[in-house]
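Hypothesis: this fold can be encoded by more than one sequence.
Test: take the structure tokens below, design a sequence, compare later.
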């Protein structure tokens, strides 16, 4: 694995800001308690937006994406190369990396290469998922070790636990039996018999693959974050931001875990889960529409004023889902200005809220390869503009974070540390008056 930001070493928050302690409960599970000592950040309400795929989940029941296919899909997005003049693909990466290789400015990820070839409209993404879902058994065989590492991190039961030893023993015996029974494959051979593990009840937040292996469904670090937010008495709201129809199972699993049905996660107060998704639409190049219904709304609300949209989202509590406008993004060749919007007012030096969006497809490399539209608010003109892409490296890890699946799986406190890092970086940005002025001036200039 490369030594860049895919490594398991996460940069630490500012000294004395965050105190994390872990204790062992009587049932054998660990419980993490976190104390945030940063007084300035405590004043701000956190508006946390999360993509679903490879950010909160790996499997997807709606698109029939298995854990194994999801890991394959992720790897195609962190392995780099380029298309040669003869049309053949040339690998540059020897290990996964979120960052483009420094010695290859024309490199793209293998996922982007396939996306450019296959996807012309939304329905084509099914073919793309199929193609990327078998990556390490086909053209990506050389990267098998990284696939195996991620699969292990996703396993529900930890190594050496009695449940894991029993599961592995059954899987090994069934694999040996299947191999010896079908030494000569042919078109008429019977499919492998379902594993006896399918007879076992799937525990809360479990996902059982076709061969019987049990995995985590919603990634545990997400619930560690909610524990932290409650322990530190933070005001927050969470929005699942997806461009597909994959929010239902996430919301159902989240509600069960937040109701203290999972032995590893105990919450000191309830958190409402809104099962009716909202929608963000790009009506034209300048107009964004939000349709959403909170618990106290009598009916679905439709809002087309971006200042009112931001205010509505910041009034929310609990967990909600919003489907963003994939067609608008696709039709503009995945340009960031038509992707998932979040909002920032550079004139407000003492903001009461902080939007952060986590998405594995957020990048600061090219405007046609990023999925976050940071909307700069101009209160004098009552207009919002897409932030010029040249400022995205400066705003990364403040308002948008490229979700790192390796760290999400390897460090249960990944989201806690990431949010704290974003808050500390926002504190610094708010002191940088020249950058704030440049962001606003150039955002306006781009519109005129």
């Amino acid at each position: 694995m490369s030594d860049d930001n895919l490594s398991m070493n996460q940069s630490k928050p500012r000294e004395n800001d965050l105190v994390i302690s872990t204790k062992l409960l009587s049932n054998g599970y660990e419980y993490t308690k976190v104390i945030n000592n940063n007084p300035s950040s405590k004043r701000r309400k956190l508006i946390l937006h999360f993509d679903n795929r490879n950010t909160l989940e790996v499997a997807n029941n709606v698109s029939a994406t298995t854990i194994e296919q999801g890991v394959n899909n992720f790897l195609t997005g962190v392995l780099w190369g380029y298309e040669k003049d003869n049309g053949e693909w040339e690998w540059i990466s020897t290990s996964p990396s979120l960052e483009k290789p420094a010695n290859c400015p024309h490199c793209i990820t293998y996922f982007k290469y396939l996306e450019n070839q296959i996807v012309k409209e939304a329905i084509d993404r099914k073919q793309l998922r199929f193609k990327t879902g078998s990556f390490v058994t086909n053209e990506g065989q050389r990267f098998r070790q990284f696939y195996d590492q991620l699969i292990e991190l996703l396993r529900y039961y930890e190594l050496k636990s009695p449940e894991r030893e029993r599961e592995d023993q059954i899987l090994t015996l069934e694999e040996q039996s299947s191999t010896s029974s079908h030494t000569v494959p042919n078109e008429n051979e019977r499919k492998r018999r379902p594993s006896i593990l399918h007879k076992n009840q799937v525990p809360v937040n479990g996902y059982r693959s076709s061969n019987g292996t049990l995995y985590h469904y919603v990634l545990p670090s997400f619930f560690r974050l909610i524990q932290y937010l409650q322990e530190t008495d933070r005001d927050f709201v969470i929005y699942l931001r997806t461009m597909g129809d994959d929010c239902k199972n996430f919301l159902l699993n989240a509600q069960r875990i937040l109701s203290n049905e999972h032995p590893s996660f105990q919450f000191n107060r309830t958190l409402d889960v809104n099962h009716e998704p909202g929608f963000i639409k790009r009506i034209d190049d300048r107009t964004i529409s939000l349709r959403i219904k909170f618990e106290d709304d009598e009916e679905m609300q439709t809002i087309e004023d971006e200042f009112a949209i931001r205010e509505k989202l910041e009034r929310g509590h609990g967990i909600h889902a919003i489907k963003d406008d994939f067609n608008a993004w696709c039709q503009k060749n995945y340009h960031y200005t038509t992707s998932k919007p979040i909002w920032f007012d550079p004139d407000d030096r003492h903001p009461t809220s902080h939007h952060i969006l986590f998405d594995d497809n957020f990048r600061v490399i090219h405007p046609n390869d990023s999925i976050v539209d940071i909307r700069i608010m101009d209160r004098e003109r009552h207009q919002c503009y897409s932030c010029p892409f040249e400022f995205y490296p400066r705003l990364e890890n403040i308002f948008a974070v490229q979700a790192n699946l390796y760290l999400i799986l390897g460090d249960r406190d990944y989201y806690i540390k990431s949010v704290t890092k974003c808050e500390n970086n926002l504190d610094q940005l708010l002191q940088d008056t020249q950058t704030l002025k440049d962001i606003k001036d150039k955002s306006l200039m781009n519109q005129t």
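The mean pLDDT is 88. The longest strand covers residues 18-24.
Hypothesis status: open.
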